[in-house]
Amino acid sequence: MSQSIVTAYQNKYEDDNEDSEDSEIQIVFVKRKNHKLCNLILDNCFISETGCIDKVADICSRVTECDLAHNNISDWNEVFRLLDVGKHIKFLNLSNNKLGRCEQIPENQYPCLQCLALSGNDNHWDNLLSLLPSFPSLSHLNIGHSNITSMPCPADIQFPNLTELNLIENSISCFDDVSELATTFVNLHTLVLSDNPVSSFGDNQQVVERFEKLSKLHVNNITINSWDEVSKLRWFPALSDVRMVHWDLFGDMNEEDRRKMLGALLPKTHLINGAIIPDREAAERWYMRRCQAGNIETSRYKELYEKYGELPAIGDIKLGGTDETITLKLCVPEKGVEMEKSFSIYDTLKTIKTLIKTDCKLTGKIRLEKEGEDIAKYDYTIIHRSDLKDGDKLIAHSRKYLLSLLDS
Fold first, then answer.
1. Residue 26 — φ and ψ, nearest 5°?
2. How confident is the model over 287-332, as pLDDT tens digits?
3. For the purposes of burial, counting CB atoms within 10 Å of the CB of 358, is it exposed (0-12), middle (13-18) or buried (19 or more)?
4. Where are the beta strands (DSSP E) in 149-291?
5. How many angstroms separate the Cα of 338 from the Cα of each of 12, 184, 357, 360, 395?
6. Beta bridge partners of 117
7. What's the Cα-to-Cα distance from 111 to each of 45, 132, 181, rounded to whole Å?
8. Are the C-beta atoms of residues 201 and 179 closer than 8 Å to each other?
């Protein structure tokens, strides 16, 4: 069964409901054929051709987004016929059709088209590259699921408007196979390489540095098996957002430790798997102790050693273990409470105040004293950057309690 865009449109949007049963209640059906759509959704409709071009022009007079995924379109000329009359189409989804090589490049250009999805078609990279000049405003291109192995690009061709390229689930095994994209798509800021058998980011830092604008990289479920390869992501000058889950390299490492490891290895990356690294310094110190425990001296460890120097010995550090802790004696005179509590040395002084307020049911501001001196003027000071030592005694007073002492 095959049909045209026109027929599919009539079947979906111009149902007359002529077979409705008689009823005492009068139901009025309003035809929608005169309603001009902006979003035309005709996926899974067995479409193979456009149909009457005048009717297509009328249907698409206001269409800006057109979804024709999972149909039977096999001729690029049918696509160009649609774009010739759909002059406002900015987004076109042709994923999972039967499109292969385009034998004849169109004479016309389609400057309105900005996003083109061709995932799951029989895409040939050299042929697609020859088609791109027909879409001068194209900024987003999806050619996933296309069995692409490499993407050679002539040095004299550039497409500065293309900023996002999705290559999910192809057959790319090394970043070198797509390195020439840097000179062709000079403003590329998002690259999706997830579900490819990528096992290396290459060995040439200068090649990677050509991706000057790349800020977002998706590399979920690839085959990298070395932390040294992860460190190469630092070569991207502007990389701030990395998505990297389902790696065998992570093994049984829990999420917290994985985030610390990645946070330490990728110091310029702002987002990892959609979340901000909450404390970069804590992650870097954790990484240093991990290296020390395993007697490993990496280039990153040497950098961090220059930054932090010799870390003080704080108990026995286990490989992949929890943060270092400090135990403090807390005294709250107005409640007659004394207690011992342990904190991570990467907690802040505010964490201590919050615990005291919660456990002792204090309200408002509180003052922390050590040997009569206020030690928490800056609530967000990290404990290991303060003068606190294991076993120190802190006295906490609420502001209300202090005022009552002054009044008396």
1. -85, 120
2. 998 888 888 889 999 999 999 887 765 444 333 334 578 888 999 9
3. exposed
4. 164-166, 190-192, 216-218, 241-243, 271-272, 275-276
5. 74, 67, 13, 10, 9
6. 93, 142
7. 27, 11, 22
8. no
Query: What are the φ/ψ torsions at residue 190 (nearest 5 degrees)?
Result: -135, 125
With beta carbons less than 8 A apart as the criterion, state whether 40 and 9 touch.
Answer: yes
Q: What is the pLDDT of residue 318?
A: 38
3-state secondary structure 335-403: HCEEEEEEEECCCEHHHHHHHHHHHHCCCCCEEEEECCEECCCCCCCEHHHCCCCCCCEEEEEEHHHHH
372: CB partners within 8 A, 6+ apart: none
Buried b (16+ CB within 10 A) or exposed e, 313-339: eeeebeebeebbbbebebbbeeeeeee
**CA–CA separation, 354 vs 332, rounded Å?**
13
73: helix, strand or coil: coil
Give, as one character, the DSSP assignment of residue 7: H
CA 79 to chain CA centroid, nearest Å: 31
Contact indicator for 378, 349 with CB cutoff of 8 Å:
yes
Q: Please, which residues have CB within 8 angstroms of residue 106's CB and are 6 or more apart in sequence? A: 80, 134
Instruction: Kindly state the greatest CA–CA separation across the chain.
Output: 95
**pTM confidence score:** 0.74
Dihedral Cα 169, 173, 174, 177, nearest 10 deg: -70
Query: In which residue are the tokens 């005048």 written?
Result: 54
Write down the residue that tokens 């001068």 correspond to: 136
106 near 84, Cβ under 8 Å? no
What token pair was written down for 117? 């999805």
Amino acid at 161: N
**What are the φ/ψ torsions at residue 277 (nearest 5 degrees)?**
-70, 115
Give the type of residue at 26: Q
Instruction: Label residue 87 exposed, middle or buried (CB < 10 Å: 0-12, 13-18, 19+).
Output: middle
Closest CA to 294 of 277, 318, 312: 318
Task: Kindly report the length of the chain.
Answer: 408
For helices 299-308 and 255-265, what crossing angle results, to 10°?
Answer: 80
What are 141-181's pLDDT values in tens digits? 999 999 999 999 998 899 999 999 999 999 999 999 999 99
